[in-house]
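Give me the 3D structure for Phosphatidate cytidylyltransferase.
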Amino acid sequence: MKKRILVSGESIIAYLGASALILPDKWTSFLPSNFTPTFIFFLFVLALLLVTVLSRNLFTFDDAGVIILGMLYVGMGFHYFIAARGESLTILLYALFIVWVTDSGAYIFGRKLGKHKLAPRISPNKTWEGSICGSLAATILCSIFIFYYPIAGYSMIEMVLITIFLSIAGQFGDLIESALKRYYGVKDSGKILPGHGGILDRFDSLLLVLPMLHLVGII
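Predicted structure for Phosphatidate cytidylyltransferase (219 residues):
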């Protein structure tokens, strides 16, 4: 979206930095104990800052800031994707169902009932009616899922409240991605998945839902 070259020195540093955050902690167990994933990530951040000097500001601090933010955003989001699967397939499916049902419900009910715009300057097609109905649909269907596949240590009432929270978080994840595209003046985040808005669009809600699953203690 920022029109940086995908195969360049700074891009390779970014890929490696994001990977340091994505990979499970145990994958770096062969390294000295002071080389934690967070420290390795910081080394790549320092490398990006060094590039700003070596490139004589052809690669600017603004460029470095955007890439570092992207490394954190994508790296931590997918780290918790792997962590959720490591906990159990049930937890990962629960997160996926929240996103899928919320998105589908918001789209279906928003088209039929939507009248009041949710965030017209960011995503003009989204409505309050669609948003509320999407979260309601996710809460109902995910509650049925949890009834048959319970998550240990959480009551049904707790899971209902958590589902509502995560459904709302997922919609904020979607809006964040829409805001990014609006800022950079692009329709899609990438061209690898034509008609789907790019790969990042397929995961934008999950990138917020999965860390929130960690926040509430499920992963």
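The helical segments are 9-22, 37-54, 61-87, 89-113, 128-148, 156-184, 199-203, 206-215. Let me know if you want a second pass.
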